[in-house]
Amino acid sequence: MPAPTIADLGEDALLTRLFPLLPAGSGTLLGPGDDAAVVRAPDARVVVTTDVLVEDRHFRLDWSSGEDVGWRAAVQNLADVAAMGAVPTSLVVALVVPATTPVAWVEGLGRGLAGGCPEGVGVVGGDLSGGEHVAVAVTALGDLAGRAPVRRSGARPGDVVAHAGVRGHSAAGYAWLAAGRPVPDAETADGEGADAEGRALARAVRLAVRGYRRPVSPLVGGPAAADAGATAMLDVSDGLLRDAGRLARASGVVVHLDPPADAFGEDLAALAPVARALGADAEAWVLAGGEDHGLLATFPADASLPAGFRRIGVVGAPGEWTAGTVTVAGRVPSGPVGWDHFRG
Amino acid sequence: MPAPTIADLGEDALLTRLFPLLPAGSGTLLGPGDDAAVVRAPDARVVVTTDVLVEDRHFRLDWSSGEDVGWRAAVQNLADVAAMGAVPTSLVVALVVPATTPVAWVEGLGRGLAGGCPEGVGVVGGDLSGGEHVAVAVTALGDLAGRAPVRRSGARPGDVVAHAGVRGHSAAGYAWLAAGRPVPDAETADGEGADAEGRALARAVRLAVRGYRRPVSPLVGGPAAADAGATAMLDVSDGLLRDAGRLARASGVVVHLDPPADAFGEDLAALAPVARALGADAEAWVLAGGEDHGLLATFPADASLPAGFRRIGVVGAPGEWTAGTVTVAGRVPSGPVGWDHFRG
Predict the structure, then answer these.
(1) Are A87 and A176 part of one and the same domain?
(2) What is the pLDDT of residues B194-251, one digit of tens each?
(3) Are residues A106 and A39 located together in one domain of the fold?
(4) ipTM of the complex, rounded to two decimals
(5) Count of domains forming chain B
(6) Which member of A122, A295, A302, B159 lies 3.0 to 4.6 Å from B298 by CB, making a disulfide possible if both were Cys?
(7) Is the domain of B35 the same as that of B118?
(8) What's the pLDDT tens digit per position in A100-131?
(9) What is the mean pLDDT of residues B270-287?
(10) Does B127 sit within 8 Å of A35, measured CB to CB?
(11) Is the dihedral of CA A32, A75, A105, A54 positive or negative?
(12) B308 in the same domain as B282
């Protein structure tokens, strides 16, 4: 018997199955089931952001499970809230799915949304529609708890540039899947079957593919950075060079990044086996790869960086380079610098 | 020269054109352009809802302009906020569009979002993605200003059932377009060219098609109903019978609707020429037609109905009929009662 689809079950029954999978959230006053939800906003300001994931643009159904897609949809929105210096409180989810979609896929999406949400964040509402392709539009809300929002535009010459989270993992995982290579199982990575090199590659591939499917954003770093005096901050979703350029442009400054080997030595080491196996360049993943959802922030030179952040460069004044420029090890990098959603 | 498309312009340039078209909103502390927006939530609770419009499910590009789609996407979300008894404050918009979409269509969408928003509501953020089909996911926020949210579940036997807004217009407009009939121009409706009957039909068709393309929800009625003591309320988006059934089920009551000629005489009269021309039943539009975004509410029997609401029935206790039943003129109606997004 084929697995039941949404068409078999119908909308109301599907929602009845879905609701219990979703996190309730500690700030939820009224959750799913009415025209709208009601969520605490203790600060009397609310931070709000929305991001959509579209099948065959942001994910492929053969590369990512429903759970993976739900996880990523949650994390990329939560990261945007954190990047303002706020604590996420809740999500609403608009889901477009073909009627032929298995019910289990949608249940997986619900579990993934739950998995991507830290303790206390609720999925408080949503909408479900038929459509030719899957699309998941998530809106996240957050609370500033008295903090000023940290914008992209406050970086000043002399500030330290710092980053929290991993770099290049998602791009490496994507490259592996795009090359059609199989993802090794846990046994290959950790068992006794393969040789040391084989196990190291398997572990690196699993790390990268997991980084692509279920990125982890250092969400607590956002409010911590705000408290530490961050002058500018953003979520690195479209690649470090491109997003650093946005910060530089908004702030009217130049961002000078340290050599990747210094700034991202750990990520380069972790991804080196994958890069070797694919004949690819791990530095390109680290500098230009998107969707790791780390936080890029600038701090006054004398600030103590909060836990999770490490120095990756310094802010300069325009002069030799125009405002908005990003240099790496003293030079303007050539090659692709990120992702335009329409021009690739 | 063909009209420029999104692919010609690119994402950043498109956003630069789009932002000035969007309303800023009186509660907006930080608008589009950063990772997230910041909006006032003076009540320290925020009302949040999301709804998605999908091409060829909720609109057709040959029946609705970008402006129409933006308008409807705004209104249907704002109505959900109002139906909780809240005042809408802001929207965020996730837009999926093929790269071949004309820039002018997206600009129209921006103007439509603005047109559908009452004074004071801002479009504070969004996301833009490529995709095979157009989809517009809007999330609306609102402020309760100290009111308790009005849920679906509070109706009590003896309450008056009341409705604000029009009924059946959107369904009639849809039926006209679905029949492939041309929409008369303003000259035909108001000029001297046609006979009286032709002018009346033209005016009725234009009213209905406008109701389909750009519904008007009685948004101020939401908070007014809450203030008048409404015991339950919802936005009628899937048809009166279906949504009244939801209210009845959530409240554990029976909803007895007055005969349509009494409850919706004005709407029936306004749509009569369209129904005659199509050989259709205006009562079915009024009772089962969706997407007018009127407000359905129940009030204590001794309450003064707020402006815009009129009595359309009474709440009964389960007994002869089970809880969740909706009767019309004392009988349970047969035939289609609304819309399931996957089973039609």
Answers:
(1) no
(2) 788 999 999 999 999 999 999 999 999 999 999 999 999 999 999 999 999 999 999 9
(3) yes
(4) 0.94
(5) 2
(6) B159
(7) yes
(8) 999 999 999 999 999 999 999 999 999 999 99
(9) 97
(10) no
(11) positive
(12) yes
Place of tokens 């710092």: A162
Between CA B333 and CA B343 the distance in angstroms is: 20
Whether residue A101 sits in one domain with residue A187: no
CB contact under 8 A, B127 and A99: no
Are B20 and B51 within one domain? yes
Over residues A268-295, the mean pLDDT reads 97
Q: The domain that contains A58 carries what CATH number? A: 3.30.1330.10
The torsion of the CA quartet B97, B98, B104, B110, rounded to 10 degrees, works out to: 0
Residue B317: CB partners within 8 Å, gap ≥ 6?
B157, B253, B254
B-interface mutation test, from A9, A26, A50, most B Cβ less than 10 A away: A50
Residue of A nearest to B56 (CA): A131
Nearest to A151 by CA among B126, B38, B34: B34
Nearest C-alpha neighbor of B77 from the set B35, B41, B118: B118
Which pLDDT tens digit goes with each residue over A215-245?
999 999 999 999 999 999 999 999 999 999 9
- Residues from chain B that touch A54, judged by Cβ atoms under 8 A, are 96, 129-131
Per-residue pLDDT averaged across A277-297, rounded?
96
Same domain for B204 and B127?
no
Q: What is the domain range of residue A62? A: 6-143
Q: Does residue B2 belong to any structural domain of this protein?
A: no
Task: Tell me which chain B residues have a C-beta less than 8 angstroms from the C-beta of A132.
Answer: 56, 132-133
* Position B66 in a domain: yes
- pLDDT of residue A28 exceeding 90, the answer is yes
Nearest CA in chain A to B129: A341
Task: Please tell me whether residues A165 and A57 are part of one structural domain.
Answer: no
Task: For residue B6, list chain A residues with Cβ-Cβ distance below 8 A.
Answer: 342
CA angle B94, B100, B102 (to 5 degrees): 80
Asked if residue B344 has pLDDT above 60, the reply is no
Q: Residue A90: which H helix or E strand, with range?
A: strand A87-97
At position B292, the amino acid (one-letter code) is: D
Residue B220 domain-assigned (yes or no): yes
Please provide the DSSP assignment of A17-81 as one string.
HHGGGS---TTEEE-BTBSSEEEE-TTSEEEEEEEEEEBTTTB-TTTS-HHHHHHHHHHHHHHHH
* Closest-CA distance of chain B to residue A197, Å: 40
Domain-located, residue A17:
yes
The tokens for B198 are: 């032709």
Name the residue among A152, A178, A159, A322 with its Cα closest to residue A235: A152
